[in-house]
């Protein structure tokens, strides 16, 4: 049995455009092209797509995925390995959820002023985060900017890094409060928060409107960022992205 590209897109949630891109780079070649010019996929293609999506969820880039699939000989063994990694990722996300929950509890002790001095152990803020993974993703998407970011990070003391992380955590909680209250992303208070976020990013690199929007989109597309935001407030990643897009259109275009 074969399924058209439209069928596969509907079943998997992957857009037809992405499927065509996977074909163009040789990552997922259809079983055949119909007389109508449409791509058709058989069961082997669906199983391969499942593996691609699993590895994307685990943070692998397309080149890494292609290399893994090229080396793969035993499909069941490969799925067992993906399953093992998914279980490990679930455990890490549980730790991450506990980290964010603990931070929220400590911040709420002084909700009016967001006095970050109430964080009893700042190092606990970072438990469960995989910074190396995001650095690898940044290197793939924005290599020059990632190099600038690393150069800036090299100038920071441990105290500087802890302070910046505390500020970022407090800002995330404030954005979550906007989500909870139904505040539009166009609200001046929300845009003030985004402006602070933009100025913080500019300490490392200076994004234009397109780059700032792309950064916001990563908070939705990347499973780790999306899960971290969701533990603070459902829909927060998309809200942050939309607020950043509004800011970019108004201030950076």
Strand content: under 5%
- Unreliable spans are 114-136
- Average pLDDT number: 78
Roughly how many Å is the radius of gyration? 21 Å
Give the structural class.
mainly alpha
Domain HTH merR-type: 2-71
GO molecular function, one term: DNA binding
Protein name: MerR family transcriptional regulator
InterPro entries: DNA-bd_dom_put_sf, MerR-type_HTH_dom, MerR_fam, TipA-like_antibiotic-bd, TipAS_dom
Description:
The protein is an all-alpha fold. The chain has two domains: 70 residues, Orthogonal Bundle (Multidrug-efflux Transporter Regulator, Chain: A, Domain 2), CATH 1.10.1660.10; 165 residues, no CATH class. It has twelve helices and three strands, in the order βααββαααααααααα. Strands 1-3-2 form a three-stranded antiparallel beta sheet. A hairpin with a 5-residue loop joins β2 and β3. α5 runs parallel beside α11 and α10 runs antiparallel to α12. The longest helix is centred in the middle third of the chain and has 33 residues. The protein is globular. This is MerR family transcriptional regulator.
Topology:
Blueprint lengths: L2 E2 H8 L3 H9 L7 E2 L5 E3 L1 H15 L4 H10 L3 H33 L23 H11 L1 H11 L4 H24 L6 H15 L6 H13 L1 H10 L3 H17 L1
Helix pairs in contact: 5-11, 6-7, 9-12, 10-11, 10-12
Keywords: Activator, DNA-binding, Transcription, Transcription regulation
GO molecular function, one term: DNA-binding transcription factor activity
Protein name: MerR family transcriptional regulator
């Amino acid at each position: 049995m074969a399924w058209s590209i439209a069928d596969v897109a509907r079943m998997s949630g992957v857009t037809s455009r992405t499927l065509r891109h996977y074909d163009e780079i040789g990552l997922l070649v259809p079983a055949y092209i119909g007389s109508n010019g449409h791509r058709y996929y058989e069961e082997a293609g669906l199983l391969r797509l499942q593996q691609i999506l699993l590895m994307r969820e685990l943070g692998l880039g397309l080149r890494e995925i292609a290399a893994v699939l090229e080396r793969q000989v035993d499909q069941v063994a490969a799925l067992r390995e993906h399953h093992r990694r998914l279980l490990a990722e679930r455990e890490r996300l549980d730790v991450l959820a506990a980290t964010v929950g603990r931070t929220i509890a400590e911040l709420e002790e002084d909700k009016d002023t967001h006095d970050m001095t109430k964080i009893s152990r700042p190092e606990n803020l970072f438990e469960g985060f995989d910074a190396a993974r995001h650095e690898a993703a940044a290197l793939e998407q924005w290599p020059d900017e990632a190099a600038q970011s690393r150069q800036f990070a090299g100038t920071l003391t441990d105290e500087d890094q802890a302070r910046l992380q505390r500020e970022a955590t407090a800002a995330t909680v404030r954005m979550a409060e906007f989500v909870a209250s139904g505040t539009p992303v166009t609200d001046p208070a929300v845009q003030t928060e985004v402006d602070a976020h933009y100025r913080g990013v500019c300490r490392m690199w200076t994004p234009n409107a397109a780059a700032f929007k792309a950064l916001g989109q990563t908070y939705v597309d990347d499973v780790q960022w999306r899960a971290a935001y969701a533990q603070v407030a459902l829909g927060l990643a998309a809200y942050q992205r939309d607020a950043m897009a509004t800011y970019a259109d108004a201030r950076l275009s």
